[in-house]
Predict the 3D structure of the following.
Amino acid sequence: MVAAILGVAGTSDAAPVTPVSTLSPEQIIAARQASFDMSVMAMAEMKMAVKDGLDVKKQFYPAKTVARWARVLPTMFPAGTGQGATSVETHALADVWTDRAGFEKAARDYEAAANKLGELAQSGDSAAFAAQLAEVSKACDSCHDRFKLKY
Ligand code: HEC
């Protein structure tokens, strides 16, 4: 019964679980753009905390949030969600799909930088946190330079 409720694969009476892939390309684009917008807000909060000399230990949450998003970022760029593929506007360049390895590496570098930022927040070392925050910003920019259309 539990198997049926959870839809465990391999049981014939399993209720179908709705996979994420049934999201429309438009919904996926909207979700990734919203996540990017929220990461700007998290970055702004951390930059403000540095500027105001606040306790960086309190910045663990936004740092961790950015790192968690970084980890799933490439999954929000499935085939069929590029420019011209849907009716909605996206600024993702075709290179996201033609240079997939490069795109995934940019996301991994970003994730590593954000994870380190979280660790430095926990350590309470404000100078190291501020320096690492600049590194995370650089990771955003270096991916945008290669994979995002300029406005
Ligand atoms: C691995 C690549 C990559 C990284 C790292 C990355 N971005 Fe992006 N970003 C993109 C791509 C590609 C788009 C275009 C998405 C679209 O329009 O569908 C985008 C779009 C955006 C947008 C516009 C969203 C919208 O509403 O259209 C903002 C804002 C943004 N990114 C901020 C950031 C910030 C801040 C960081 C770092 C904290 C970051 N990004 C890191 C690739 C990246």
